[in-house]
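User: Please fill in residues for this 292-position structure.
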């Protein structure tokens, strides 16, 4: 299998970092992108580069802030100048707010969508012209189980993931004629720094009005890791492995891939299986069976 040129967003931690290392380990030319590569994330940048170098694998770290047109366009232009192509984009950058939904102001929600949704759209739009010109490519959108169901106090987060699911599935249909695939990875409850860095809602008056209910999100954060079996903790590497498998697939990729910790099943695969026939029947009725 030929090595692919892969851009990974949000590679400073979590699934993005693991995915960048796994793809480099498999011999792909990986461009791990993140903010503040010479500042806050300089240690992570060095760690990624040294880890890949120790195993003799190609990995490059580039500055890219997904909320900035200029930053995204400059990073993608640099990749094209160096490699001549981009075979895969892994959209992983994101935030996970946990809080009383009403207490997130318009500005709060706009900031979240700027990263979780518009950041992905921005990266897609920068990469897709090059993929269309090449007649091939793959976009992997990392969403969440909460792109398919809703849990109280994760409402704003789920809204962004539902949006990403819709965009990624629509890309799947619209880009198929250009030889470009769009797929979705739906991770389950793995340990992550997303919960500890959850953006707080700004409307303190609303929080006060909710009384004791407003303390529940804090309890969720405090107990997030206590539900894990310390002898057999969930392995986030499973998500990186699933993404790598999609990158290297030689047969038709599934639209959605659910990745759960061992022994855990929240039923999302069943949701996907139940919805797919309805979606496909609608496409057939509209004369679009060829995109299924």
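Assistant: Residues filled in for all 292 positions:
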């Amino acid at each position: 299998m030929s090595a692919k040129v892969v851009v990974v967003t949000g590679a400073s931690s979590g699934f993005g970092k693991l995915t960048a290392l796994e793809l480099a380990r498999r011999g792909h030319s990986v461009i791990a992108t993140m903010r503040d590569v010479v500042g806050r994330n300089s240690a992570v940048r060095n760690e990624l580069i040294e880890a890949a170098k120790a195993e003799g694998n190609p990995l490059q770290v580039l500055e890219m802030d997904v909320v900035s047109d200029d930053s995204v366009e400059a990073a993608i232009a640099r990749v094209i100048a160096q490699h001549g192509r981009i075979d895969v984009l892994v959209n992983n950058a994101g935030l996970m707010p946990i809080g009383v939904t009403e207490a997130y102001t318009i500005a709060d929600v706009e900031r979240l969508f700027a990263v979780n949704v518009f950041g992905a759209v921005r990266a897609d739009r920068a990469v897709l012209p090059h993929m269309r010109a090449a007649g091939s490519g793959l976009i992997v959108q990392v969403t969440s189980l909460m792109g398919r169901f809703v849990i109280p106090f994760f409402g704003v987060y789920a809204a962004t993931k539902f949006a990403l699911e819709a965009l990624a599935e629509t890309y799947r249909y619209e880009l198929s004629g250009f030889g470009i695939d769009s797929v979705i990875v739906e991770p389950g409850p793995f340990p992550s720094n997303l919960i500890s860095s959850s953006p707080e809602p700004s409307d303190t008056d609303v929080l006060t009005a909710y009384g004791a209910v407003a303390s529940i999100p804090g309890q969720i954060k405090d107990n997030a890791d206590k539900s894990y079996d310390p002898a057999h903790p969930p392995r986030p590497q499973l998500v990186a492995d699933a993404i790598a498998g999609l990158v290297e697939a030689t047969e038709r990729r599934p639209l959605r891939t659910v990745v759960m910790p061992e022994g855990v099943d929240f039923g999302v695969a069943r949701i996907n299986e139940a919805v797919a026939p309805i979606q496909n029947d609608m496409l057939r009725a509209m004369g679009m069976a060829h995109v299924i």
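For context: The chain has a mean pLDDT of 94.
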